[in-house]
Structures are given as structure tokens and as C-alpha cells.
Amino acid sequence: MEELRFFLKQVMPFEEKELDESLAFFREIHIRKNEFIVNEDEVCQDAAFIKTGLFRLFYRLDGTEKNMLFFQENQFLADYYSFLTRTPSKRPIQAIEDSVVYRISYNDFQRLFDLSRKWERLGRILAERAYIFSVQRANRIIHDDPDTRFITFLKEYPALINRVPQYMIASYLNMTPETYSRVKKRINFREIERITSIHEPINKFLI
């Protein structure tokens, strides 16, 4: 679990003994492509740190899937609303690639809070970041035009443009696949830095 150990040390000044005690609560899980780590109408029982792989969080509306978030390596993964409120999820999470995660249950996460105030602070930071990104996404859909939404996605997730199917990115950006294709063709990549979103990308390493 060296990836998780390294991540935690970057975020909080954990001592090695604290990390050893903390990592004992996590278990390595292999997830196949298209497998669900959170199912619709089931309570999200676990959070997970992604060692390798890629996931999407989405919802279904009138038979159409709407992608809301992508999670990749070195990020924590959960339907936080379901995880925190202990209510059934309306936003399933599915693997886009074969993936490996370090998983921790809700109850064990609470035990970590009792183990160290550093974990309490880390939990607060994760919750704050989740809120920030949800507001960013909502405001961009309302205020940014399609070109700006596409460019902002490139700035935030440069590697995902070749890892995520085009129709999923289109859905995430609230576009039809046809609109996405037109936007992608007409963007002048030399002018990307001149186009700014209502919310420019921020450090996302904690989400």
C-alpha cells in the first residue's frame, strides 16, 4: 500500500506508527472493467483509494445515463452523500478500466477518526473538496459555454481525454455526442490558455 502511504504523508504529518495502524484498516480489492463498486439503491458501504484504474459516478434519468464525476489514480472514491448519510445511493459507481483499490468500510473510517485527530482533519478536507467540486461542476454547466467546458476538462484531466469514451465525456460536459464532436474539431489548441471558466481548475489531489 505504498501509494496510499505516500499520499497520506503528503496530506498530513503522519508518523510511521500512525500510518501502520491506519493502513491495517484498508484491504486491497481488484475491480474488473464495467464492474460496479457502488450499486444504485444500495448504501455506499465503503470508501476507496485508487491504486490503478478509472471509475465514473453517474445517474440515470429517463433511461439516459448522466456522468457526474470521474475518479482516477491517487484519489479517494465514494458516493459521499450515501456514504455519510447511510442512505441508498442514486449514483452508482462503475469501473471504466480494470482497477485496483484500497477499500475501507464506513465503520472502520469512523474508527480512524477515533484513532487520530489527523484523520478527523483529513475527513473534513475530503468533505470540503467534494463540496467545492460539486459547486464548480454545477456552475460550469450553467455559466460556461460548450467550448469553455471542453477546454476546462482538458486542463483538469489531460490524460482522461484518451482513457474515457467520447460519449461519456460528452455526457459529463452536458453535451450530446454530436455537439462534443463539433466542439472538439473547432477548438484552436493554441488559444486554450486565453479561454477561462467561471471556475478555473484547482488542486484536485484530495478528491
What can you tell me about this protein's structure?
With 207 residues, this protein is α+β, with helices and mostly antiparallel strands. It has a domain at 2-117: Jelly Rolls. 43% of the residues lie in helices and 20% in strands. The chain is built from 8 helices and 8 strands. It has helices spanning 2-11, 16-23, 80-85, 106-115, 117-143, 146-156, 166-172, 177-186, and strands at residues 27-31, 36-38, 46-52, 55-61, 64-71, 76-77, 93-95, 99-105. The strands form 2 sheets. Strands 1-8-3-6 form a 4-stranded antiparallel beta sheet. Strands 2-7-4-5 form a 4-stranded antiparallel beta sheet. A hairpin with a 2-residue loop joins strand 4 (55-61) and strand 5. Helix 4 packs across helix 5 (117-143) and helix 7 (166-172) crosses helix 8. The longest helix is centred in the middle third of the chain and has 27 residues, at 117-143. It is globular. The two termini are 18 Å apart.
Task: From the 3D structure, determine the CATH topology of the domain at 2-117.
Answer: Jelly Rolls
What is the distance, rounded to the nearest whole angstrom, between the alpha carbons of the first and last residues? 18 Å
Average residue-wise pLDDT? 90
SS summary, helix count:
8
Total count of strands: 8
Strand fraction: 15-25%
Broad shape: globular
SSE string: HHEEEEEEHEEHHHHH
Structural class: alpha+beta
Full CATH superfamily name of the domain at 2-117:
Jelly Rolls
